[in-house]
Design a protein that fits this description.
Shape: flat
Helix content: over 70%
Low-confidence stretches: none
Number of helices: 7
Strand content: under 5%
Largest sheet: none
Mean pLDDT: 92
Number of domains: 2
Order of helices and strands: HHHHHHH
Structural class: mainly alpha
Length: 181
């Protein structure tokens, strides 16, 4: 399955959400199973193709023709201790807060929870800064397309995978923390 050809989009590193969404909606209207000419299997493939192209890591891996590389991006290695620590602290404090049975035990958790909120924001900011630099690199790769070094494309794809996962995990903990208030 080639997601680019399914959606009728050019094979390149940078595609806007508008391009992908427009191509998806145009085809979804005719392929939807509720339509007279609808096709359940092709509609499912269309959805999967759109999901691949919306995710920069998956899109770059599709262009490279590989699932992933085994190299840890240096920025991921640098951020990993901070992200891992704040996620572990979040899980611990949120769990402690959920089992706190009286006002005193909840009050004792107030300061650590406030500090955790700050740490989550700081970690999200660090990951967001990394994402911004990756977006710029994606623009550079797109300008050089198709003469892109495969290793550079793998590095950016792997970096986007870390950024996306860490942003999701940090935002989940931030939401869980907000629910404790």
């Amino acid at each position: 399955m080639d997601p680019f050809s399914i959606l009728g989009l050019p094979r390149r590193p940078l595609l806007s959400e508008e391009e992908i969404g427009s191509a998806y909606r145009k085809l979804a209207g005719t392929l939807h199973p509720d339509q007279a000419e609808g096709d359940t299997e092709r509609f499912r493939e269309l959805g999967e193709a759109a999901a691949i192209l919306r995710d920069p890591a998956r899109r770059l891996r599709e262009l490279a023709g590989t699932a992933s590389s085994s190299n840890l991006p240096s920025q991921a290695a640098a951020l990993f201790p901070q992200i891992a620590a704040v996620l572990q602290q979040a899980d611990t404090l949120i769990e402690k807060n959920s089992v706190a049975s009286n006002a005193l035990s909840k009050a004792l958790l107030s300061a650590p929870l406030k500090s955790l909120s700050f740490d989550l924001r700081a970690s999200l900011l660090a990951v967001g800064t990394w994402r911004n630099s990756l977006e710029k690199e994606l623009i550079r790769l797109n300008a050089a397309w198709p003469g892109i070094d495969q290793d550079a494309m793998h590095l950016v794809a792997d970096s986007f995978a870390y950024v996306t996962r860490w942003e999701r995990e940090l935002k989940e903990r931030e939401l869980a923390l907000a629910c404790t208030e």
